[in-house]
Amino acid sequence: MKIKVAIIGGGAAGFFSAITAKENNPKAEVIIFEKSTKLLAKVKVSGGGRCNVTHDCKDPFTLATFYPRGGNYLKKAFQQFHVTDTLRWFEKRGIKMKTYPDGCIFPLSNDSQTIIDCFLSETKRLGISIQTSSGVTAITKEREEYILTVNNEQVKFDRVIITTGGQPKKSGLDWLSSLGLEIVDPVPSLFTFNMPNNPICKLMGTVINPAHVKIEGTKLQAAGPLLITHWGMSGPAILLLSAWGARVLHENEYIFNILVNWLPEKSEESLRGHFKNMKVSNENKMMVNYSGLPLTQRLWEFLIEKAGVPTMMRWKDFGTKNENKLLTVLLQDRYSVKGKTTFKEEFVTAGGISMMEVDVHRMEVKKYPGLHVAGEVLDIDGITGGFNFQAAWTTGYIAGKSAVR
What we know:
- There is one protein chain.
- By secondary structure, the chain is of the alpha+beta class.
- The chain has two domains: about 5-190 and about 345-405, 3-Layer(bba) Sandwich (FAD/NAD(P)-binding domain); about 190-340, no CATH class.
- It has 13 helices and 22 strands.
- It has helices at about 10-25, 40-50, 60-65, 70-80, 85-90, 115-125, 175, 235-245, 245-250, 270-280, 295-305, 320-330, 385-405; strands spanning about 5-10, 30-35, 55, 95-100, 105, 130, 135-140, 145-150, 155, 160, 185-190, 190-195, 205-215, 220-230, 230-235, 255-260, 335-340, 340, 350-355, 360, 365, 370-375.
- The strands form six sheets. The protein has a seven-stranded antiparallel β-sheet with strand order 17-16-13-14-15-12-18. The protein has a five-stranded parallel β-sheet with strand order 6-2-1-10-22, covered by helices on one side.
């Protein structure tokens, strides 16, 4: 049976669902509509232009735990298409991958254009039509067909897959609300913390690995590398907090306090023991010149000053009062956050079409047979590290395969 399938959105999930649909039904007429002139824009900038394709977590149930929202639904979806399937898909098309120590997987070329060229080559090979500058502004159903309003013209399709990606404002999803779909308000998910005029910003470029960061007054905490920037703090530990705390931090208008443990692998007791040894073995050395701790010299000098320890103090003169003050700064260093900055160019949102509306086994809207959804337009988002692309490949694969059955 020849059917017409519309893909709304020319991003990662859109291309993956289009290619999957055509491969599963070569007779289907598949058209990708992209409102802008650019295709696969997020793929292009991902991972600093290298494209973090996926993550080396091959157990579907464990993989689902890396998604602050949507993980329970993805447990079922990953059983249909997961990391191993993704790697096999690209390998079949001649693209080799490299896995890094942190589990992130990139194309061996270290160039996102490799992935883009693959998708464009596949759509050309399969005869998939791509229409740019073609925004879909409305969708209605008439009997068994869907009518799309594209550039003020109406076009009929048998199946539709919505892959429009995350939207910064709920108004960007109004055209879907008109279908009676429940929309979860979108809020930013991956962002760094702004600390205007905080002296620590003078240490920009300093990396502490690991650090432990907690959002004061909540149970939110994360560990990992922390990067000090000219505007505040970034790095995996901060991005983890921004993802898991996306809604809480939005409700607080991005004004909150964090507590940083610069030495999470050391206890208070072990640090007191370390200080005791330093008083004996380095008694005449200036404290500021030598810490004996896994901290950069610049950070140690900064923390000494912040604790109020006299700059010219020698280790032998380091008393209990100063020790207590320094321990507080080392293990519970408090900073005020006032605002956020999008992480590089990787815009990710929490929110979108509620997963309660979707049959996850087919990525099909329950009340609209033949209408499928995939990617970030759903209320699904993962932490940084290739997880958001894996969700796009998985949901795109299921939507594309189901749409042509």
